[in-house]
Design a protein that fits this description.
- It is a single chain.
- By secondary structure, this protein is of the alpha+beta class.
- It has two domains: 4-131 and 176-270, no CATH class; 134-173, no CATH class.
- The chain contains eight helices and ten strands.
- The chain has a four-stranded mixed β-sheet. Strands 2-4-3 form a three-stranded antiparallel β-sheet, covered by helices on one side. It has a three-stranded antiparallel β-sheet with strand order 7-9-8.
- A hairpin with a 2-residue loop joins strand 3 (43-48) and strand 4 (51-56).
- The longest helix has 19 residues, at 111-129.
- It is elongated.
Amino acid sequence: MYTRQFSINTNEWIAVSASRNRELSEILGRLAELTTADGSDVLTVSVKKGVRYFMAGKYCGFVCFADGTLVEILPRTKGGKVNARIALCEDFCQRCGHKFSPSDLHDDMNFMEYFISVFAAETMKIIKSGVLSAYTSREENMTSVQGTIMFAENIRRNLTHKERLYVRHDVFTSDRAENRIIKAAAMMFNKLTANGRSSQLLKEALSYLDEVKVPRNIKAEFSQCINTRNTRKYSTVLSICRMLFDEKEGSCLTEKNIACAQFYRLPAQAEK
C-alpha cells in the first residue's frame, strides 16, 4: 500500500534540493534513469548549482515504488488536476474497453486507484457470470484408477507403496491462462490499493480464484489465451492486464524497487 503520493503534469519542471529532500530526489532520479534507459523519457533530470531539476515528458500514468511512494503524472489540461485526471481516466477506459463514468472517479482517487477500481469491477463481472474452465491433463498419485496408469513412473514412485497408482487423467478446472493472468494482477493490486471498496472486491475475486495457480511466466500465459465468443467477456480485464505486464502496450517498468508502473502517451486531442 502506498503511503505518500506526488502528482505532477506533463512538461512540468520540479526543482528538488537534495539537502532538503534527499529521498524524493533519489526516487525521481531513479525513475528518470529507468525511463531514459528504455527510451520513454517519462522523466528527465538536470543539475544546476546543487539543485536537481526534473521535467516530466509527454507520458502520463503512475509508478508506485516499493517504499510506498506513488508518483502520478497527469496530462496538462485546463481546469487543474481534477480535469487532468478525468482526461487520463477517460482515455484509459477507451483503451481497455470500459465505459467511463465521471461519478466513479471519486475526489480522493488518483489514477492508480482508478486503474485498480476498473480492474476489480470488471473482474467481479466475470466471476458473477462464471469464470471459464477447461479440461487439462494432470499426472498424480491416486488411490484408485482414474484415466491412464503411467506404468514406468508408477514403478519408480510407488515401488514400496502398493496402495498408490500414478496416473494421467483429465480434470475440468478453472486453472487456465486467462484466470492465471487475472489472479497475478489481483494479487499485485491487492497489495497496492488503499481504497476499501477495491480491496474488498479484490479479496473476493482471489477467494473465487483459489484453485487457480499463480503464473510463473505471464508472457507465456498471454500466448495461451484464446479469442472466442466465450472469452469475449474477458476482453476488458485482459486489456488492462496487458497494459500492466506487456511492454508493447505501454511502459510497464519492472525493477526490484518498483511495485507497479504504467505509462503511455495520450493523443494530442486528449490534452485540452
